[in-house]
Amino acid sequence: MPGKKPSVAYVVVLVVATLMTGTRAAAQTEQVLYNFNFNNNGAGGTDPVSNLIFDASGNLYGMTATGGDYGVGTVFELTPGAGGWTETVLHSFQRSEGANPGTNGGLIFDRAGNLYGLGGGGAYGYGTVFELSPAAGGVWTLTVLHDFSYGGIDGSGPTGSLIFDGAGNLYGTTGWGGTGPCLSEFNLVGCGTVFELSPKAGGGWSEKVLHSFGHGTDGTFPVAGLVFDAAGNLYGATYEGGTGSCLRGGNPGCGIVFELAPTAGGHWGERVLHNFAGTDGSWPVGSLTLDAAGNLYGMTNGGGMIGWGAAYELMRRTGGGWGEKVLYNFNETGSSGASPYAGLIFDAAGNLYGTTEAYGAGGYGTAFKLTPTKAGRWTETTLHGFGSDFQDGIAPIDSLIFDAAGNLYGTTSAGGTSTWGTVFEITP
Predict the structure, then answer these.
(1) Which candidate among 87, 290, 306, 341 keeps its CA 20 to 30 Å from the CA of 332?
(2) What's the pTM value of the predicted model, to 2 decimals?
(3) What are the domain boundaries of the chain?
(4) Confidence of residue 54 (pLDDT cuts 50, 70, 90)
(5) Contact, 370 vs 379, CB < 8 A?
(6) Are the beta carbons of 162 and 170 closer than 8 angstroms?
(7) Alpha-carbon torsion 301, 306, 307, 308, what sign?
(8) Please, what is the average pLDDT of the chain?
(9) Least confident piece of the model among 124-128, 148-152, 171-175, 381-385
(10) Terminal CA-to-CA distance of the chain, rounded, Å?
């Protein structure tokens, strides 16, 4: 079974896993750069569940869902040095300003070097959008830009990563809330939203809901971030809903991929690009990735031909519409791992990289590579199987990132020398 899960109230937790045995890559080396621990009551943070990002100097930034001075999460920086990597806690969250941050996403920078992210908690207890600004002496100041409310039409339980448009507006998703008629096992109402935050001329930010899910078959419960195309359209996925025949907890549908396009008068129109049907994947997770041709790539937490998740591509059809292709079916019996929670990333050669949360050679998740072939198929290579001794980390649930030299970096939500999670590097 996978390792312990982060204790975030609005996380959708599925114990599901995968198909088709991949190959193992002996030339890949995994190194733990930092072990989170519970020393000093976890003041340095515990349960890292967010994507990492680099700054221009090669420092890494991320979030932990628990730990810190108040026990409900941190924003941290890792700085490389001759003796290894050193952690600095930039902020320890209090519940009133955002608790348990980083679910299914991570931080982003603006051009001035400020950090932005999403958390739970807040003034009403149902999530925040926050900004962290650096000041003299290495101090960072947190500002809450928006507080989400219970069952509010502005959304509840923000998830994923934020993104900017060219004008400096922020866009994101909430897993619950809005005007849709859903009721969850967490007693949250609404089926989720896509929202925009715009800076006001005199200071502060205003929030606008671009779409509320749950009206018909437009999808329910978006649990990951968004991506823009060159024309300014937004793309994302919902965990459930649509016309598929899946049923979980009384909620129908296997999930969808959607597009939101701006229309006249400042409105946005939603279009369902694909309804998952189970055999081609169920319960899409993680942010989508676009290639140069405008095709979309992502993963599902379950479904596929074996039932343990799939990597997929959505291709634009000549004359309109989209077609789906399953690139890989994960399984619990081989080395490839099962139950992906994260998104995919490309390298310069067109290969895809990602993580699975469970199974694989070590039993507790994998980092993998998908390579396209001339025949139009994709082959899987396992770069690392987590959990052989637990000290390499277990249960990676977020996306990987590259450095300039082609090394991969990520987090495990548990494991390591103190069992509270790791930051790792995989070197080819």
Answers:
(1) 290
(2) 0.91
(3) 23-427
(4) very high
(5) yes
(6) yes
(7) negative
(8) 90
(9) 148-152
(10) 28
